Structure formats: C-alpha cells, structure tokens
Amino acid sequence: MATTQLEALPEPKYWHLKTALSEALDSEFTVGQILPNERDLAARYGVARATLRQALEQLELEGRLQRRRGVGTTVSPPRVGVDVSPAPDRWPGEPGDAWQTESASCPAAPAQIAQLLGLAAGDSVHAVRRTRAAHSQPVATELVYVPTRELPAGQEAEAILATLHLRDLKGQERTVELGSAKAEDARLLDRLPGAPVLVVTTRYLTEQGTAAVTVATYRADTCRLTFGDSGAMRLLAG
Amino acid sequence: MATTQLEALPEPKYWHLKTALSEALDSEFTVGQILPNERDLAARYGVARATLRQALEQLELEGRLQRRRGVGTTVSPPRVGVDVSPAPDRWPGEPGDAWQTESASCPAAPAQIAQLLGLAAGDSVHAVRRTRAAHSQPVATELVYVPTRELPAGQEAEAILATLHLRDLKGQERTVELGSAKAEDARLLDRLPGAPVLVVTTRYLTEQGTAAVTVATYRADTCRLTFGDSGAMRLLAG
DNA sequence: AAGTGGTCTAGACCACTAA
DNA sequence: TAGTGGTCTAGACCACTTC
C-alpha cells in the first residue's frame, strides 16, 4: 500500500475535500438531489464540520451546490446564461427587455451614483427597482437611477422610464465586478446578506451627458453573464 | 445609556463588524496602510478571531482589503478598470492588445473547451498561455485554445496566434462568471488557490465555425471589468 | 526567531423549515 | 418538534515573510 502524498501535502485538507466532493457530485449525484447533512458528511470524511463547510462554500461559489438553512444542501443545475448586453440603442424599460418593474422611490443619490450622473453628493434622484427571473427563479435585481432634473419627484415608475425613451441615446458604458449582496438585494434574490453577486453598472449616455445609471445585482452562484456577439449581429441588423 | 439594538439583533456579529471596519477604513486609514493583526483586532472588537476573519473575508471579497500571509492586512486601492471588450474584429495577439504571451503547449482539450470548439472530448489543441498586468501587478491570466486541425503540434506561441490573424473573423461571443482560482492560475496571479476570480470566456467565430476559444481569469478582488461603449464608438470608427 | 495570516478542531447555540 | 444550515467560541498548529 503506497503512502501516496500524505507525507508531504502542502495543499490544505479542504482543498482535497473539495476535489473529492466535486468528483462525487459528478458520479454519484444528480441535479436537485439532496446531500447528506454537514455533520454526517464531516464524519464520513473524517474532518471537523468547519473544514467540511470550507469545501462546501467553495463549491457553492462555483455554482455546484446550493445550501438552504432548515432544508439542506442540493446539487445545482448548470448556471443559466443571462444576456446583459441588450441592443446598445435602447433605454431600460423599452418593450421587450427582460426586467419587471417593481416600484419607485426618490432618495438622495449615493455618492458613487451621484458621481456617475454628474450630480452633487446628496442630490435627489428617481430610483426605480426592477427584478429579473430565469426559469421562475429570481436571478437579478436592479436600481435605475434618473436625475430629478426635469421630472418632478413622486412619479410612477413607468412614467420615469418613459421620459427616458423620448431622448436620443448616444451609447452605453458597462462594468462588471464582484460584490456581496446587501440586505435588501439579498432578500429579493432569496439569498443571505453577503452572498456573492456580480454587479453590472451601466451608464446611459446622451449628447448632454449621463441620462441614467443602472446598477444590476446578479446571483453569482446561479448566473453566467453573456455578452452576445458585438460585431456581426449589429452589422446584420444595420 | 441606551441599549441600542443589542437586545434584538437578527444580524450576525460579523455583519456589524464588517460595517464598523468598513467605516473605520474610510475614516481612519489610508490606502496601503497596514491594519493591526487579526488577534489584536479581534480582541479590540471583543470577538473570536474566526468571527473577525469572517468580516475580513467579505471586505477582501469587495476589494477593500488585501491580506498576505506572513505580512499583514493592508488597505486596498480602488479596483482597477480593465477593458475586456477589445475591437470585435480582432484576433487575440494582434498588435496592441493588452496581453503578454508566455508559452505554448499542446494538451488534450478539456471537456468544456472541446465542446465550445466543436471537437471530440480529448482531441488535441494548442494552448497559449498569456498574462496581463495593470500598474505592474498581474491582474489576469489566460489560455488561448486553437484546434490543431490545420496547424501541426509543437509550434511556437506566436506562430499559433499568427495563423489566426490570416482568417476572417465573423464575431465574438463572451461570457463572464465567478470562479475560484486553480493552483496554476493562483500562482500566476499571486494569490492562494481558491481565490475568487472572474472568468471571461470568449468564442471567436468564423464562417467555418469556432476558430479559437480564450479563457481569461481575472483577480476579482482587484479588477473591475469594463465594456467600452458598444454603440457610438463603433459608429465613429466606421 | 518573531510575527503574520491560513488551517483545523470540538464543541455550543441560534434561525429557519417542514412534518 | 426534529433536523437543517448559519454563527460563534477558544484554542492549537502550520506556512510564510521579515528581521
């Protein structure tokens, strides 16, 4: 019986554990199936529960597992691809987009938003909350920020978006980064606060400057963001 | 003296801790400054070290902190924006792109890559390793996969890329998702294995099908992916 | 050698879900 | 009410960097 690599293993236990679990997931489990509970799994692999959890956390981060308190740990389906590059000449809320408008409010602009919109810190903005689902599961929540420059406060969400549609859109700028879900976003996405999310920030540009900013928060565990062909498709359309 | 919210706090300790630390970071520390060590910090806030670490981990995930074993925890600069949407009519390795070619090998295609390239599992492919830096720090590492269909094995990296440049590029398809760094990527990015990364997969399309696939791995803690204007800029160029 | 963050343990209790 | 994952503790040792 070979000693294998147990004598000199620079890799930590949870790393090997993760590999072992990942292979078991491929060979012995099917999508949606529920795993043994954490205490049993830890005992089965001969590690402390905290160590087992470290491996599960990474697998959840990679979209292989889904854990729900009070329920259990289940095997995730492959991530769903969600398109985040709609036509570059369309405003949020124009017919056919993937979002469902929820509500509107009129808070002071967060510092970062104010900067993107070219406003002073604390200026009032319209904020329209929207959500997006795939396969009947919520995958993203978004806030559309519009300056209250020309449109008075207290409008309906649809009215706010409608004012954008009248304007001439010059282009969009988009960024993607990793974040952790704030309490409100987490609730809407059916996750715990702090869950990893992909934050997509889009700036809508007109000749006069930035007319709107959207901050969309996608569940990182279940989503794969897709950017459709940025060359041929447009050439075909034009 | 008010009891504040200590009587009924559904939020966990590490969540409050994170907020407290985040505010301290803004007001009492400067970029690059080194924080007190974890044992001292934990004592200062009256929590166990594991709880303190849970808060630090989230702040690191959000790009606010950087922790290095044997050194300490430092305050991170804002994330750097890296453009991941070069001109949609250019191949990898054409003059002026942001990457530095490292080496080439000729492995069997991983299952996922084979599928994207329309190959059978285990078919041989060229794999060109490249890296990308910003502010003298490595921010991404990439593998360019090219089928060995027309080009024999054992080529130099530059020769492999050069064969692509002769072909007519019809378009690109790009996806972004969250991953965790494999051992090799982690080493190149100066991170520990398992570190969170943004994985950008690009498919290069010709009339004949998929000519190449790139898998780029960006440090999620230090990078903000940017997608330049997808409308106006091209109109101006054309 | 001293000090840092990284890993690991063995326990406890809590919040939540479902029968 | 029983069972799940989520939080928290107090300790130990290890890997790495720096002096």
TrEMBL record, chains A, B:
Region feature (Disordered): 71-102
GO molecular function, one term: DNA-binding transcription factor activity
Key words of the record: DNA-binding, Transcription, Transcription regulation
UniProt-listed PROSITE patterns: HTH_GNTR
InterPro entries: Bact_HTH_transcr_reg, Chorismate_lyase_/UTRA_dom_sf, Tscrpt_reg_HTH_GntR, UTRA, WH-like_DNA-bd_sf, WH_DNA-bd_sf
One Pfam family here: GntR
Positions of the HTH gntR-type domain: 11-78
Gene Ontology process terms (BP): negative regulation of DNA-templated transcription
Domain of life: Bacteria
Name this polypeptide is given: GntR family transcriptional regulator
Organism of this sequence: Streptomyces tardus
